[in-house]
Amino acid sequence: MTLEDLERRTVAAVAAATGTAALDEVEASALGKRGELTRAHRDLGQLEPEERRTAGKVLHELRLRLEAAVAARRAELDAVERRATLAAERLDLTEVGEVAGPIRAGHLHLVTQTQRELEDVFVGMGFTVAEGPEAETDWYNFEALNMPPAHPARGMWDTFYLELGEPETVLLRAHTSPVQIHLLEQGQRPVHAVMPGRCYRRDTPDARHLAVFHQIEGLVVDRGITFGDLAGTIETFTNAYFGADIHSRLRPAYFPFTEPSAEFEITCTICRGEGCRTCSGTGWIELGGCGMVDPAVFDAVGVDAAVWSGFAFGFGIDRCAQMRHGIADLRALVENDVRFLGQF
Ligand code: FA5
Question: 189: CA distance to ligand 1 center in Å?
Fold first, then answer.
């Protein structure tokens, strides 16, 4: 085989090598210890010194060309193989975007938005915002609110008890009214506060009820507070939050911790007062209870009822959201269907 043949064949084999392993073989058979070029070098010994020098130079130049061809091809194949390895080891972090379309930013749940809006309305009316614990003792949820043990009104709140201490002494609060007691115990006078938070009841979920829901409590304790202040506050709130075209009414009611007491209702926004499944055909939806603070509550926390008077209210935050946005069934708020929640 002539050197031209060797060069042509080797260059073709180098170009045809599809991986670095194949290239290694081509390089070994052409340039390696037992390769053809090495053999040709060895054969130089049989030549005359003059011929040997010329042929040696030719062989050396051929080796340099072939080594350069191998190196160039190796660089190409290395790059291809590195890309393949990277592609194989790539961590696909874009799955959500590819599966569900472009990634959308979330937003606060409607109930949280509503709670903040209600807080804003009341802060605009001069109230401060306070919070209390969700796990309470019997004293805060019932007794200090004028419901001694075995008082029949306790049945108005179907309560979850915690297995802590004596049976039925620690519970998940059934309403936000216990926070009134915390504020009064802290000695604040006068009080103009709203207290939003989560409440728990063994209520069967339906169009207007959830077992875990939210209330915003209101408490005003000052000198010379009257029922007129309560009615005016509720009317101002209704206009600010629902708009002037929504009708509201107070109906006489009973709560152990207020006297007199009332229920606060607005026209059902689902049927505009016609009567529907959401309002059980009455045309009205109850948003909360309210009344003048009962002197027995003042007694329980050491407030002098001869000096101070006050009113309190407790509205359902979920119900406010329901009426404001015309949600026929409250359960939709907790079913976590983003198509529903994404609307708000
Ligand atoms: C109370 O909880 C009293 N603590 C309210 C109160 C406060 C009266 C201060 C007087 C003075 P009631 O159980 O009616 O009252 O609940 C008040 C409101 O909470 C209801 O009108 C309703 O809007 C909401 N609510 C009650 N139970 C649920 C429930 N299971 N799911 C959703 N909202 C509820």
Answer: 25
